[in-house]
Amino acid sequence: MVLNSIEKLIEKYNNAETSLKEEAQLRAYFESDDVAPHLEHYKPLFQYFSLAQQEQYTKDVPLKPKRTKLYQWISVAAVAVLMLGIAIPQFFGPTEEEKRQAQIAYEQTLEAFNLVSLGMNKGKQQLNSLAMVSDNLNQGIEEASRLSEFSKTTNRIFKNK
After folding, report:
1. Do 89 and 98 contact (CB within 8 A), yes or no?
2. pLDDT over 70 (residue 95)
3. How far is CA 104 from CA 92, 96, 98, 117, in A?
């Protein structure tokens, strides 16, 4: 009877269907000396689990991570680079005279572009006038072709009569 229930528990254990209580029964059975011969190969497995439960970790676990000096020096270097990036343009940047000359050059360039823009706008207006003349000329040619058709038709009428 006991052997039959142990075999059923082993089958459930292999299918991962046992509870903790049933696993404790299996462990107790395989720790005893009267294990059936055909179930002997399960004995080391359950003995290992019993030994593994008794093991304890004795090494100290550090709670604070060790910070290396490399990270500290990297942060110092980053601050130094940032400060240099701000300070160098202030000391070695353009002087007030250079800034004023650059502003004057910028304003002169804007004036030149405005003049070019005015010239282009005048040219565009002249092109618009030419386009209007071209449209009127094309319309006149169409009217003239209708007139020639009219004259051909009237000539036929008068010749036939």
Report:
1. no
2. yes
3. 21, 12, 10, 20
